[in-house]
Design brief:
This protein has 14 helices and twelve strands. With 419 residues, it is of the alpha+beta class. The strands form four sheets. Strands 1-2-5-4-3 form a five-stranded mixed beta sheet, sandwiched between helices. Strands 9-8-10 form a three-stranded mixed beta sheet, with helices on one face. Strands 6-7 form a two-stranded antiparallel ribbon. Strand 3 (129-135) and strand 4 form a beta hairpin. Helix 3 (38-53) packs across helix 8 and helix 4 crosses helix 6. The chain is globular, with a radius of gyration of 24 Å. The model is unreliable at 1-17 and 355-419 (pLDDT under 50).
């Protein structure tokens, strides 16, 4: 390090300052500024940002065509094999930069490493792939490459049924709990921007993250009747509250050294030792039971989980901090508009010129069942933010949505921990 050089800022602070919102504006900025409650504003930001990440028709076609090219190449080698796509593409939870996972079934291949090299040679000769890498000694041997035309990344494996089965399971979970989708999108971007989204580098992969979100939603305090000690239907709908509580659970509350998570039986926590998931050499790992193979721990290779936990702690801290200015974009405290997102923003603005400020240019807000903007009275909106409301006894029964007879005595945007 050069003598006299300025000390680099902490990683999280550097990431936050990567792009200033003063340099540009996001399409939903104007409409979100009009929402008084920071938590309701955060909810709307999550909805808008999730919609912003949805693939355009051109992007869907681009992926479809790339998959068709690779499938045709594989079938030229094994005409009777079954080629299936799984992972985030199949579940519909993929980001613009997400890899495409494929598995070759019923190929009757005995020498898998040789077969992977055969695929690599074939796609290379056809000129459709670049940056080829054969990982023949991995736990699940795969060939990795990028499609020349689209730069999309492919991971191809042989005879692994778990991927397609997991995709079916995830789609069923999303159908039952639609709020999984927007939360997973935000958390994927959050982890990706901190290089904590790949299992091979010790981060949390998509499958593990989806289970974490599912368990969180299943066991959220709003879904439990404390007096009756039973689960109830419904629960919290505000995505802002749920995102903050997710960060609180996995960043502050959960004892990862002793406790694991499962999304079976409506979601529960278990003792890692009793499930034989305790790793003496890495006792800090988050144990995540695989619901499809209950003797498998999805989190066993996420050796950087404590960095993930620290990132979650940071996110909870900054999201619950008081506003620095009225109407600020709360989500942008933890998500930076990096080069990829800014290019996407420019591309979408070019494809839909003339959109008024506050519109996404991508149609209406995403229609995720159960994720609509909550219809709350003025009193309930203030209650969400922990606002003390002073109302005279004569006004108590008359307070309504349109009432202005409310005196804000104290405002504290940081929610108390009630678990």
């Amino acid at each position: 390090k050069d003598e006299g050089a300025e000390e680099e800022p902490p990683l999280e602070e550097a990431r936050r300052d990567d792009q200033s919102l003063k340099d540009f504006s996001v399409p939903w900025e104007a409409s979100c500024h009009q929402i008084y409650s920071p938590l309701l504003r955060l909810h709307q930001e999550i909805m808008e940002f999730t919609e912003f990440l949805q693939p355009t028709p051109d992007e869907r076609k681009m992926r479809h065509d790339a998959i068709a090219r690779v499938k045709e190449t594989i079938h030229s080698l094994w005409p009777h094999a079954r080629v299936e796509v799984f992972g985030s593409y199949e579940t519909g939870l993929y980001l613009p930069t997400s890899d495409i996972d494929m598995v070759i079934l019923q190929s009757n291949c005995v020498d898998i490493p040789f077969a992977l090299r055969k695929i690599a040679g074939n796609v290379s000769r056809r000129g459709i792939a670049k940056n080829l890498l054969v990982l023949s000694k991995a736990r699940i041997p795969i060939v990795k490459f990028e499609d020349v035309e689209t730069n999309l990344k492919f991971d191809i494996s042989f005879d692994v049924d778990g991927g397609p089965e997991a995709a079916l399971f995830i789609k069923d979970m999303i159908r039952k709990i639609p709020l999984i989708r927007p939360l997973v999108y935000i958390l994927k971007i959050f982890l990706q921007q901190r290089d904590l989204n790949e299992v091979y580098s010790g981060g949390v992969g998509s499958y593990g993250l989806i289970i974490m979100v599912t368990v969180f939603l299943m066991t959220h305090e709003s879904r439990i009747d404390k007096r009756e000690r039973r689960r109830i239907t419904g629960g919290e709908k505000n995505l802002g509250i749920l995102l903050i509580d997710f960060f609180d659970l996995y960043g502050n509350i959960l004892d990862m050294f002793g406790v694991g998570i499962s999304c079976r039986k409506g979601g529960f926590f278990y003792d890692k030792r009793s499930y034989d998931f305790f790793n003496v050499e890495r006792p800090y790992l988050l144990s995540i039971e695989d619901p499809l193979q209950r003797d498998q721990d999805v989190g066993k290779n996420s050796f950087n989980i404590q960095k993930v936990k620290s990132a979650f702690q940071f996110a909870h801290q900054v999201l619950t901090a008081p506003e620095t200015q009225a109407g600020e974009l709360v989500l942008m405290r933890i998500i930076r508009m990096d080069g990829l997102l800014i290019r996407r923003l420019d591309k979408l603005e070019e494809s839909s010129p003339g959109e008024p400020a506050g519109e996404t240019g991508l149609g209406d807000s995403p229609k995720h069942e159960g994720a609509e903007t909550p219809k709350l009275t003025r009193k309930e909106k203030m209650g969400i933010m922990g606002v003390a409301i002073s109302v005279s006894s004569s006004e108590e029964g008359a307070l309504s949505d349109d009432s202005d007879d409310v005196e804000v005595v104290q405002q504290n945007p940081k929610r108390s921990r009630t678990r």
